[in-house]
Amino acid sequence: MRRSRAAMLAAALGAATLAGCSGGSDDAATTAATAPTADGIPVKVFDGDTDRPLADATITAFGPDGRTTVPKGTVEVPDDTIRVRVTAPGYTVGAATAGQDRGPFVVRVYRPALQSPEYGGGPERTRYVPAVKLAPPKTGAKPKWTFDGRTLIEFPPAVKNGLVVFGVNSGRVFALDALTGKVRWAKRQKSYIASTPAIAGPRVYVTSMDGMLSAYRTSDGHRTFQFSTGGSPVESSPLIVDDLAYFGTWKGTLYAVDLRTGKEKWTFQAAADIKASAVKAGDRIVVGDYAGNVYALNPRTGARIWTASVGKRFYGGPGFSDGTIVIGDVGGAVIALDAATGREKWRHSTGGQYVYASPAIADGTVYIGEYGGRFLALSLATGRVKWTFDAGGRISGSATVVGDTVYTSVLSRPGEPKHTFGLKTSNGAVVFRKDDGRYSPAVAAGDTLFLVGTRRLYAYPGTP
Q: How confident is the model over 197-207, as pLDDT tens digits?
């Protein structure tokens, strides 16, 4: 016989005298529930990155007469439940709403520490997500999926909460399911894309060479706003800090756009083109220009805090770690600056070899390649060379550190073989090799390594 909602809530209140209420102000009114009944609706909770069942979760059921908390694990909720809310330590909050078929509630939750939602992994652009500790794929290992973008993938994807988003040179933006590689949605810009999108809140932000910042809903790709720079091309990947997006243009303007309104908050005019991405360095925004200047700005107003004229031409953006800004100079150097003052800390000369790449910074080491084919591991504190690796070809793209491996790719000439290398961070020994790649080679999130080929994206499973 079906139990009434009132009877179920009464039983829940009785159980509460034994189990007590859940902690936190948001759940102060929730109570523990009785064991599942035959009349309930199943709730299935998964770790979204691994697709494995998650037992250590608290499920709150919302119905017409109130809410109640059910035991941990894969359970059932009362049959008149309208919505469920799921919490678990170290995970995002998940929710699901009942469908017309009254089928199971399926909820996926994600660990924020394992996501890579923008270029460089996060606003400091270190190209290193410390909590992701994946071993390199074994020789000959097959990816769990491969996606063909049909044209050049110049910049790596952003990955957050099961969504993989990237642009290609044809101007298409792809949003893929991280577990399966299937397209969730795709959009086309009027011009090609030479940057990494950013995923923040319910939106994806994409810059493109037609001078646009476009905002798309993560759920379905619906465009919510588009901001125009007046046609000046944008290679700068958007930097998202709080409610503002920062990006530069070829005319040397750094924009701060309010994400709530889609309108300009402020602009800063540099001395030359800004092709690099900006970085959050403590309480300031830092960016370089094509005249060899590095600027530190107030993030809310755009007021200049300091300028350091230390290079010849900055194409790759800076990275920030431990109070230090590191940037590669096309003039042939890797330069470290004090983030507070702009004072030069050290300079490593590459003997005139261009440095187009942005640095990867992990555990006190800077990893960066130069155009002559030499890959460098430098001390963040002093600039001392720890080890070098001869990649056998030009290096233009930025490296990425995943666990104990740093990945770099060769910018091969027509007819030359393509190579992506995984190097041991301690000594530069080769631990992985793939015959594909061109620019920035990798992003890791959850338990997946996403390798970027010339036009293909490969997803290799790992163990976090």
A: 999 999 999 99
